[in-house]
Design a protein that fits this description.
Number of domains of chain A: 1
Strand content of chain A: 25-35%
Distance between the termini of chain B: 55 Å
Distance between the termini of chain A: 65 Å
Structural class of chain B: alpha+beta
Order of helices and strands of chain A: HEEHEEE
Shape of chain B: rod-shaped
Number of helices of chain A: 2
Strand content of chain B: 15-25%
Largest interface: A-B, 35 and 29 residues
Strand order of the largest sheet of chain B: 1-3-2
Oligomer: heterodimer
Shape of chain A: rod-shaped
Largest sheet of chain A: 5 strands, mixed
Order of helices and strands of chain B: HHHEEE
Helix content of chain B: 40-55%
Number of helices of chain B: 3
Number of strands of chain A: 5
Number of strands of chain B: 3
Chain lengths: 142, 129
């Protein structure tokens, strides 16, 4: 009787082994797919945030403007896509860190050179000659 | 036991299919492409590509405004943008261009804008990919 019990155990072992291997493979695939989906979602979310910031910069935040009246009581007309380097510098110096913290982005940077992390760019012009440049907005997920 | 094995085998088989469907994130989203296409249009406007000289009454045979606009302003600008960014840009003064051979491939976007040519509002197409 002891001998037959051992045979049953071996039979069960060899039957269960492929099942366990396939299960472990399945869990690995699920973990990989979940990680890939999370990475994709984070990347897409970060890209959309950077696109929003870049859109703000080329339409309002860092463009040439003409003010009429005082800064708080007057009106302003903006020239989208015509970058004022002083305004861009002000954004980088005063607003970038606060805005990045608020939106969950680290090392938020807007400049004419590609920075660290994920970057999006917009086409802009600079100066009286309307020189074509790429305005990069870069950052990393917090 | 064999039923369980069969079910798990099927799941493993299906997991191969799901693996092939997992793709790396797209580098440039459609939203970004639309924004770049609007940038191209805006810069062409800023550079004066859509400004036309008002022809005199005595000018009975004015040159083709579309050709002039493309030859002297748009094409050099598009070439400069292509060298800077790698974007392929195609301009056409017909609405139907978006359905013809100039239709951009996957990932490309099309903008329709109205431009006044010889005093006539004309639907134009800008394709960026």
């Amino acid at each position: 009787m002891k001998q037959s019990k051992a045979f049953v155990s071996f039979d069960l072992l060899f039957a269960a082994l492929p099942v366990l291997i396939m299960l472990s493979y399945l869990f690995t695939v699920i973990a990989f797919a979940t990680e890939a989906a999370n990475t994709y979602q984070d990347s897409a979310e970060l890209t959309q945030k950077l696109s929003s910031i870049a859109d703000y910069l080329v339409k309002r935040g860092a463009v040439e403007r003409q003010l009429q009246g005082t800064e708080f009581l007057g009106t302003a007309s903006y020239r989208p896509n015509v970058i004022d380097e002083v305004e861009l510098g002000k954004f980088q110096y005063y607003q970038a860190e606060e805005l990045g913290g608020w939106m969950g982005i680290e090392n938020l940077e807007a400049s004419f050179e590609a920075g660290e992390g994920t970057c999006v760019y917009r086409l802009v012009v600079v100066g009286e000659e309307l020189e074509l440049r790429k305005l990069y907005v870069c950052g990393e997920a917090a | 036991m064999k039923t369980i094995e069969a079910i798990i085998s099927l799941m493993v088989l299906l997991s191969f299919a799901s693996l092939t469907l997992i793709q790396p994130p797209q580098e440039s989203s459609e939203l970004t492409k639309y924004q770049l296409a609007e940038d191209v249009w805006r810069i062409a406007y800023l550079k004066g590509c859509f400004q036309q000289e008002i022809s005199g009454v005595e000018d009975l045979a004015p040159s083709d405004p579309t050709n002039d606009m493309e030859e002297y302003c748009l094409n050099p600008l598009f070439q400069e943008i292509h060298e800077e960014t790698g974007l392929l840009i195609d301009f056409s003064d017909t609405f139907e261009a978006s359905a013809g051979p100039n239709r951009p491939g996957e990932g490309g976007v099309i903008l329709h804008k109205v431009v006044v040519l010889n005093g006539v509002p004309t639907q134009t197409t800008l394709a960026v990919e």
